[in-house]
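In this section we walk through a basic example: taking a raw amino acid sequence and producing a predicted 3D structure, encoded as discrete structure tokens. The instruction is simple. Fold the sequence below.
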Amino acid sequence: MKKILIILTALLIFNSCEDYEKMNINKKDPANVSGESLFTNAQKNLFDQMVSSNVNLNIFRMFAQQWTETTYTDEANYDLDTRTIPDGHWDALYRDVLKDLDEAKKVITETTYTTTEDPAVKTNKIAIADILMVYTFSVLVETFGDIPYSEALSMEHLLPAYDDAATIYSNLISRLTTDIGQLDDANDSFGTADNMYEGDVAGWIKFGNSLKLRMGLLIADVNSTLAKTTVEAAVAPAAGGIFISNKDNAAITYLGADPNTNPIYSDLVASGRHDFVPANTLVDSMNSLDDPRRQYYFTQIDTSTQAGVVKLAYVGGAYGASNNYLSYSHVADKIQEATFEGTILDYAEVEFLLAEAAERGFNVGGTAESHYNAAIRASIEYWEGTNLEVTNYLANPKVAYTTAEGTWKQKIGMQSWIALYNRGFEAWTAWRKFDYPLLEAPVDAVSDIPVRYTYPIDEQTLNGDNYTSASAAIGGDDVTTKLFFDLF
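The resulting token sequence is shown next.
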């Protein structure tokens, strides 16, 4: 009898422990996450970071002087440290994007799928995830300069060394070429887990080649040989194509409810705050050109000084100064909608790149003028402008390629800057590349206009030796230290 009781007690204890273990399993937090889910999450985090107007994360619209602030003007005056803005950008891209994409590739590689799935589908998925990694690393290089690359994302290197930016960039171009070559548009990929192209591999091939075009031209002033081969390979018919219409744009459509709304809606509408207005730098430039996109970019305000008289106009806030929100134009309503799409590369930008390539003597077909005109048309049509608006704008002597003021860099630089409205990072990069339009730092600025982010404070304190080496290698950890591609 005693033995039976001991056995029963043991069984009860064992069963209780087993039940206790079951109770401690969090069924809402699965132990295994699919590679496809990781890819989707990384993709959304990437777009959120590049689209955001949150001053803790992304102030590139102000670097490009397309937006300015109302009450709090620190960021418009280039104070990056108070809110540790570089840390936010760095963490979002390394932790929330690159780490998930890297893990997605590992999981997909190791996953045994059903026999009905062609092995080419797995290959497509891995290549697509890596293309987004290339894009993300390129943004980090273009933001900071030398960054952790070869030792990044590895648990074996918790304090990773920094690699030379130019070397990273060349490697990324090579890596991108390999990825594009592995894509097979006769097979599927991520399907609905892909918010950019819904698994359409042909769309990813165009994106890859268009990104390659962009990256090739970024280094044109420092490595013209690599730039030329990269650009011409990207546009070669055998490569699979680049963007040829706005339907090809690298964009995602946001949803109407949190947490999947456009970040601009969260920052400008849901927050109930009125922190930004369009900057006079951009508004005045567009006014001088009678640009038809003003109605799609900004609202108008009544500037009449007489009672009972309405005189509507586009008026930008003074860049870097305090601005009364009600006294200036606002960001257009469409851009503030929860479902407004986010974009990281578009057809208009591609055509401006082709115009630049033609001016540099690269074999891309067409002329600089034809691509310049196509870029402006693509931009106006994207914002739902009319054919008449396109025709009239291109006929403006201040806009027409043959009569517009300045060198080809000034012409393409000015119109790229306007077309890249609401895409702050790309507009800032175009300004750094072309040195046009001529922008000036506001009187209260803590520095000249930044040409890079400083390294995160966390890197300075936690990865000090590697940070110090990287800072010395690029010429000093300062916002005015030009990066390797920015010669002029």
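Looking at the output, two observations stand out. Residues 35-68+81-242+453-488 form a domain with the Serine Threonine Protein Phosphatase 5, Tetratricopeptide repeat fold (CATH 1.25.40.390). The radius of gyration is 25 Å. In the next section we compare this with other chains.
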